[in-house]
C-alpha cells in the first residue's frame, strides 16, 4: 500500500513538473499573463501548439464575420476613395473587433486591416488598411453596393504580416512592403494573379491547404496558437477569449500553411526549452504604446527575434501577435 501511494505521488509530481515546463510567463508592457502550451499537433512540415492563457475575457465583442451576417457592420470606400483608408460602420450595441491582417474583399481593391481595432458601438470610423490587390482600382459592378467590402476567407500570409509588423514598429510606410511580399510569394509559388491579388494565391493552393488544415483542430478553452514551420518558430497569436479565437482558427492556420507548402523542407523537432525562451524573451522587448483610433491602446514591440503588436483596453489584453522576422537570402526584413 505504501509503495502504491509513493507511485501515485511520483506520478503527480511528474505531471506537475510537465505542467510547469509548459507554462510561459510574459509581461506585455505591464500586462502580465501566463500561457499554457497544450499538446502539439503536427502534419508534414507544420507544427501547431494550441495555447491557453490565464485570463478569461468576459466582455462581449462582435466579430466582423458575425457583424456582416447580422447586417450590423458595413465597411466601404470613402466618398473619395484612397488606398490606405476605408470607412467602418458598427451598428451593434457592442464594440466590433477587427483583427490585424484580416482581409476584406471587393470595392475598388482588396485590403487587409492594419491593426487590431475595437470600433465603439453605434459609431462610424475611418480605419487604416493596406492593399492586397495591386493590379485593380475599380469596382466590379455599379451602384453604392459595389463600393462595399465583404469579409474574406483569408488573412494576410505569415511573411506579409511579419514584414508589415517590423515596418510598423520601425514607423516605416509598409504598403510597399505588403505589395513586395505578395509579389515575392507569387514568385516562390510559381503563380501569377491577373491583379496581383493575395486572395488568388490562396485560391490557387486551396486544395493543398485543406490537406494540412484537417490535421489541426481546436482544443477546449484554446485562445491562441504557436506555429512552427520547417522546425522554426514563426509566430504566436493570442486572443481575448476562446470564442473569438474559434472564428479565426482556420484563417490563422491557412496563413502559415500556405507558406509551408511553398517552402517545404525536412523537419527537425524544435527544442521545447528554446521555444519557452523565445516566449519569455517577449517580456524583454522594447514597447511602444499609443491611443488607438478606436477603443484602447495599440502596442508595438520588438526584440532580436522578431516583432509584434497588440491591443489593450481597460487593462485587458484583447489581442496580440508576435512574428519571427522574415528572412530572404539571409537578409532580415
Structural class: alpha+beta
Low-confidence runs: 10-18, 329-333
Q: How far apart lie the N and C ends?
A: 62 Å
Shape: globular
Strand content: 35-45%
What's the number of extended β-strand segments? 21
Number of helices: 8
Summarize the structure.
This protein is 29% helix and 36% strand.
Q: What would you note in describing this structure?
A:
The protein has helices at 2-21, 64-69, 158-169, 175-189, 198-204, 206-213, 242-262, 272-280, and strands at 23-28, 31-37, 41-43, 46-53, 62-63, 73-82, 85-90, 96-98, 102-106, 111-113, 117-119, 123-131, 149-155, 224-229, 232-239, 286-291, 297-302, 306-313, 316-324, 327-328, 331-332. It is of the alpha+beta class and 333 residues long. 29% of the residues lie in helices and 36% in strands. The longest helix is centred in the C-terminal third of the chain and has 21 residues, at 242-262. Helix 3 runs antiparallel to helix 4 (175-189) and helix 6 crosses helix 7.
